[in-house]
Amino acid sequence: MPWPLLPLLLLLLLLLLAASGAQTTRPCFPGCQCEVETFGLFDSFSLTRVDCSGLGPHIVPVPIPLDTAHLDLSSNRLETVNESVLAGPGYTTLSGLDLSHNLLTSLSPTAFSRLRYLESLDLSHNGLAALPAESFTSSPLSDVNLSHNRLREVSVSAFATHSQGRALHLDLSHNLLHRLLPHSSQAGRPAPTIQSLNLAWNRLRAMPDLRGLPLRYLSLDGNPLAAIGPGTFEGLAGLTHLSLGNLQGLPRLAPHGFHELQGLQVLDLSSNPRLQWAGPEVFSGLGSLQELDLSGTGLVPLPEKLLVHLPALQSISVGQGVQCRRLVREGTYPRQPGFTPKVALHCIDTQELGARGSNTL
Fold first, then answer.
1. Which of 95, 221, 254, 309, CA to CA, is 20 to 30 A from 279?
2. Phi-psi region of 148 (alpha: psi -120 to 50; beta: other; left: phi over 0)
3. Of 207, 215, 192, which Cα lies nearest the Cα of 247?
4. pLDDT for 50-81, tens place per residue?
């Protein structure tokens, strides 16, 4: 190797090592673990993850390093969290906070008011029964997990955050929700920027009013929704993914029930053996739908006119391992004037194909 190239290669190696980041441990509060990740040239920048999980309620308030980015306080049998518990040097830079698997039944309205950089908050697996109106307004949250609590009624306005337009991913699954109050423009605050909303396994009998939210992903799996008809999804034209699997009771699909969802690309109706529908007109208006899951439903055999209402459809799942794909038959050449290609569904059993493949090895 020519001598002039050696210093250049050494410098390049140093830059690569510096950019990749390194993890080390540092002294920490007794019982906690502090893991430091360094970045930049010569480790000039560092962030600390502090794990104080499973130590008991005496651990709070716990002092943490000034450069703490994530704090894990899960599984500590905490019964309350307020502003004084989450205050002190190091808390102002927190971007992630884990309070899951505790005994929280309520939150102070100002509990997170000093966490000006908090982006991810996990409050799952607690006993929360209500949320204060302005719990999250001080933080730029992008991910909030409230699953596995005891929430019965929640206002959408409670999730107005200091996010400056950033998308919010919200998990409210496995609660006791029977009502979701719509956002009120009279409150003087803009609508929450909820882009992904998980409402699975609650007690919703009707589709909640979600108008004004920039939703793209919505799950209502496991709810006792009684019927889906015209107007059910009003104001959700931007929705691209909708999951309605395992609906409880005897759900009914009325004609034009999805008509407002012109941008929907993925629809999951799986695991609904008692699902009732009124023919292919149910899917009228779904001009952008590409994937449809009907496995575990009574919606088979598929009607011949189904593809007329789903011009962009590429695949349908109709059972365990059975996948149907759109097939366009162009016909013979040269084509005759006025010829229209025939469109049909070609279904294959992927499990059977896999078994054949394994036998040929």
1. 221
2. left
3. 207
4. 999 999 999 999 999 999 999 999 999 999 99
Query: In this structure, what is the dihedral angle of CA atoms 311, 312, 318, 323, given to the nearest 10 degrees?
Result: 130
pLDDT band, residue 20 (cuts 50/70/90) = very low
Over the stretch 163-211, which tens digit does the pLDDT of each residue have?
Answer: 778 899 999 999 999 999 998 766 567 789 999 999 999 999 999 999 9
Angstrom distances, CA of residue 77 to CA of 83, 88, 133:
18, 22, 25
Give, in order, the Cα–Cα distances in Å from 32 to each of 59, 63, 70, 80, 251: 9, 10, 13, 20, 49
Residue among 206, 146, 161, 160 at smallest CA distance from 180: 206
CA angle in degrees (0–180, nearest 5) for 49-52-57: 150
Please name which of 285, 234, 229, 216 lies closest in space to residue 255, comparing C-alpha atoms.
229
Cβ atoms of residues 196 and 216 within 8 Å: yes
Instruction: Supply φ then ψ for residue 43, to 5 degrees.
Output: 55, 45
CB atoms within 10 A of CB 250: 12
24 SS3 class:
strand
Place of tokens 């390049």: 12
Res 150 pLDDT > 70? yes
291 sits in which H/E element: strand 291-293
Q: CA 285 to CA 41: how far, in whole Å? A: 55
Within a 13 Å sphere around the CA of 121, how many CA atoms are in the beta-carbon half?
23
Per-position b or e across 142-174, b if 16+ CB within 10 A of its CB: bebbbbbbebeebbbbbbbbebeeeebbbbbbb
Omega into 61 within 30° of 0, i.e. cis?
yes
- pTM for the model: 0.85
Percent over 70 (pLDDT), the chain:
82
Higher pLDDT, 323 or 95: 95
Contacts 24+ apart (CB under 8 A), 29-35: 29/62, 29/63, 29/64, 31/55, 31/59, 32/59, 32/62, 34/65
